[in-house]
Amino acid sequence: MSFPVSIFGRPLLPALICSLLWGSSFPVIKTVFHHWSAHGIINSLPLLLLFAGVRFLLAGSGLLLVSKSTRAEIRATPWKLILGLSFTQTFLQYVFLYQAISISSASLTALLVATGSFWWMLLAPLLQGTAWPTRLQWIGLILGGLGVTLAIYKPGANAGNPLLGGLLMLAATASGAFALIIFARMKSTMSAMNATGLSLFIGGCALIAAGSQTLHTLPQMFDLTVITATLWLACVSASAFTMWNYLSTLFPVTLLASYRFLIPVCGVVESLIFLHTDESPGWGLILGGLLVITSMALARRTTGGKITP
Predict the structure, then answer these.
(1) Rounded to an integer, what distance in angstroms lies between the CA atom of residue 209 and that of residue 140?
(2) How deeply is 187 buried, as exposed, middle or buried, from its count of CB atoms within 10 A (0-12, 13-18, 19+)?
(3) How many domains does the chain fold into?
(4) Do residues 116 and 176 touch, judged by C-beta distance below 8 A?
(5) Does residue 226 carry a pLDDT above 90?
(6) Could you tell me the pTM of the whole model?
(7) Which residues pair with 306 in a beta bridge?
(8) Residue 306 lies in a domain
């Protein structure tokens, strides 16, 4: 897939677009869960897996339909990497994430997306041999984490089961970090678009298989509201994952890790707008946003002798 050079010359704009897209998924998924509850549909694990599987199957199919050189790139890429990416980026990550959203608040799960940056900082040097973050970059990540915490601070943030939801989100973000490292080994033989399409398609099929015992509930699950939400979530997955994987071919992981703090901020703001809860943007959101901006500025320093854009 060819992206406009003017957009991808620097990571801020595409990272912000990805963050807005991914951020929208938290209130949309939570809205679906509320909709099901209002209609007497219990959010069991198989049902959540089926819902996620339909989303990713649609997203992956759409990408593969418009991709180029798919067969040639599959032949050039080891299947263990393709399956590894599908398992970590799609199947495992969203098994954990959908459960977390179902038992805790959208704001809490959005906050914990930021933990993916810390996983990347630890795993990339160990598994990829990249340089360890500089002191300023570590300070930036700490400030970013503090900023995200302040940005979503509210009385209702701990609704549901925050402990179990937090553990599930830690597992989800760890899976996402492993996925990016696996893609780094594929990018010489497979484009971001084909890799994302295959990951979403194969992972979607696996999720549907895991939730197959609820296939008989499809007519009840997917009314007009849920169909609309699913189509939007499929577009989010196809576009944001492709864009983010492509960014990983252009910029260091440590730099992208800092921009991930935009995802929870966007998720919180979009939850405030669309979920109509008692949350309100106060001093925590304002101060937290300033800290996030500061963290990104610090992370734009030299990494391993290479100046990042």
Answers:
(1) 42
(2) middle
(3) 1
(4) yes
(5) yes
(6) 0.79
(7) 303
(8) no
107 vs 179: CA distance, rounded Å:
24
**188 in a domain, yes or no?**
yes
Range of the domain at 277: 9-299
- When pLDDT is cut at 50, 70 and 90, the band that residue 204 belongs to is very high
Cβ contacts of 48 within 8 Å, gap of 6 or more: 98, 99, 102, 211
pLDDT at 235 over 70: yes
In three-state form (DSSP H/G/I as H, E/B as E, the rest C), the secondary structure along the chain is CCCCHHHHCCCHHHHHHHHHHHHHHHHHHHHHHHHHHHCCCCCCHHHHHHHHHHHHHHHHHHHHHHCCCHHHHHHHCCHHHHHHHHHHHHHHHHHHHHHHHHHECHHHHHHHCCHHHHHHHHHHHHHHCCCCCCHHHHHHHHHHHHHHHHHCCCHHHHCECHHHHHHHHHHHHHHHHHHHHHHHHHCCCCCHHHHHHHHHHHHHHHHHHHCHHHHHHHHHHCCHHHHHHHHHHHHHHHHHHHHHHHHCCCCCHHHHHHHCCHHHHHHHHHHHHHCCCCCCCCHHHHHHHHHHHHHHHHHCCCECCECCC
Say if 55 falls within a structural domain. yes
Give 79's Cβ-side CA count (13 Å radius).
3
Look up residue 116 and give its two tokens.
């993916």
Give a yes or no: residue 172 inside a domain: yes
